[in-house]
């Protein structure tokens, strides 16, 4: 912002629609970003992220001269990032995945299996999971840089609407109920006997590794990307309802390759993604969706643990 503009004439008053977009009650939670404070999610729907309510014109008047008011209001843009930033984040994630997996592959070949080929090591589930974990850490670091450095929001958690709930019990219970309900639905849908994801459950060690990964880093990164970064950009561009279903669809596509894109299991994942996005939207909280996600995955792991005698008889999964 130019602190010493050439045009020192009095700034024109803000238009009514701009004033409403900044001071309306629906924007109260978003105001925490400016103060660097995060708050617990509200019980009411807090959604007003249309372009007209958020974007501030960079120019004023027919002369195209910079407005003295616009730079101050620009800091209220929510989210601070754009759709191009999200696409760039996807590109970075793909690069990070290659870096993570190849790093773990070379490390495993150097210190664990020096005579094994990279192709054979790439089929080892533990190596794949470790590579994904490295990639997720790299992506998380870039997310932080994108928000705090490139977009000038020093409070990362406030910018993504983290908002840890004061009472986590309803979200954990909700995740358990959601998992059990969708398991019942899955029994009514055509489910393939063998899926690519089954390769991660061939040994107890692999089952434990994926279980730990599935209730820690995996749901965290999925919630940060889909509900923290993607959803608010979509909501600003295509509206609240369409953004919820579009985010759920994108979430299902991410898991589609693990499910051979069979419509039964993909439908279940789509419903999971849609519910998680609804939690994010209605509670204005990424953390609330994370709690539901962790409880959902955790319930599946507990059911699997019980059904296979503590991961000792994994062959029962295909019976």
Blueprint of the fold:
Layout: H1 16-23, H2 32-35, H3 51-54, E1 59-60, E2 65-66, H4 70-74, H5 83-111, H6 118-121, H7 125-150, H8 156-159, H9 169-186, H10 204-214, H11 217-238, H12 240-256, H13 263-283, H14 286-307
Antiparallel strand pairs: 1-2
Helix pairs in contact: 5-7, 7-10, 9-13, 9-14, 11-12, 11-13, 11-14, 12-13, 13-14
Task: Tell me what the structure shows.
The relative contact order is 0.12. Strands 1-2 form a two-stranded antiparallel ribbon. The longest helix is centred in the first third of the chain and has 29 residues, at 83-111. The protein contains 14 helices and two strands; from the N terminus they run αααββααααααααααα. It is mostly helical and 319 residues long. It has three domains: 16-74, no CATH class; 80-159, no CATH class; 161-319, no CATH class.
Care to give the gist of this entry?
This protein has helices spanning 16-23, 32-35, 51-54, 70-74, 83-111, 118-121, 125-150, 156-159, 169-186, 204-214, 217-238, 240-256, 263-283, 286-307; strands at residues 59-60, 65-66.
Quote the average pLDDT. Answer: 82
How many E strands?
Answer: 2
> Which stretches are low in confidence, meaning pLDDT under 50 for 5 or more residues running?
1-75
Q: Strand order, biggest sheet? A: 1-2
Helix fraction, binned, reads 55-70%
| Total of helices | 14
Proportion of residues in extended strands = under 5%
Q: Give the tally of structural domains.
A: 3
N- and C-termini, Cα separation: 65 Å
How would you spell out the order of helices and strands? HHHEEHHHHHHHHHHH
The biggest beta sheet reads: 2 strands, antiparallel
Structural class: mainly alpha
- Using the alpha-carbon principal axes, give the shape: globular
- What is the radius of gyration computed over CA atoms, rounded to a whole number of angstroms? 23 Å
């Amino acid at each position: 912002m130019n602190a010493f503009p050439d045009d020192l004439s009095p700034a024109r008053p803000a238009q009514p629609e701009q004033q409403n977009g900044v001071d309306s009650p629906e924007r109260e939670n978003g105001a925490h970003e400016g103060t660097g404070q995060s708050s617990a999610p509200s019980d009411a729907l807090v959604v007003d992220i249309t372009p007209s309510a958020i974007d501030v014109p960079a120019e004023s008047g027919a002369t195209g001269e910079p407005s003295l008011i616009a730079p101050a209001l620009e800091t209220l843009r929510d989210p601070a990032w754009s759709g191009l930033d999200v696409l760039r984040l996807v590109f970075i994630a793909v690069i990070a995945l290659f870096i993570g997996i190849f790093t773990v592959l070379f490390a495993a070949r150097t210190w664990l299996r020096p005579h094994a080929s990279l192709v054979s090591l790439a089929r080892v589930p533990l190596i794949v999971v470790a590579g994904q974990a490295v990639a997720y850490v790299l992506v998380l670091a870039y997310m932080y840089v994108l928000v705090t450095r490139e977009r000038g929001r020093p409070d990362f958690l406030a910018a993504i609407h983290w908002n840890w709930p004061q009472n986590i019990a309803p979200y954990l219970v909700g995740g358990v109920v959601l998992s059990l309900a969708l398991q019942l639905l899955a029994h009514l849908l055509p489910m393939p006997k063998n899926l690519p994801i089954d390769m991660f459950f061939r040994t107890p060690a692999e089952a434990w590794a994926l279980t730990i990964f599935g209730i820690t880093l995996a749901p965290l990164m999925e919630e940060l990307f889909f509900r923290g970064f993607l959803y608010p950009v979509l909501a600003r561009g295509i509206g609240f309802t369409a953004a919820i279903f579009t985010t759920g669809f994108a979430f299902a596509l991410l898991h589609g390759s693990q499910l051979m894109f069979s419509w039964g299991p993909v439908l279940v994942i789509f419903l999971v993604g849609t519910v998680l996005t609804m939690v994010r939207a209605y509670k204005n909280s990424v953390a609330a969706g994370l709690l539901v996600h962790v409880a959902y995955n955790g319930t599946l792991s507990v059911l699997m643990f019980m059904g296979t005698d503590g991961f000792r008889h994994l062959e029962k999964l295909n019976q």
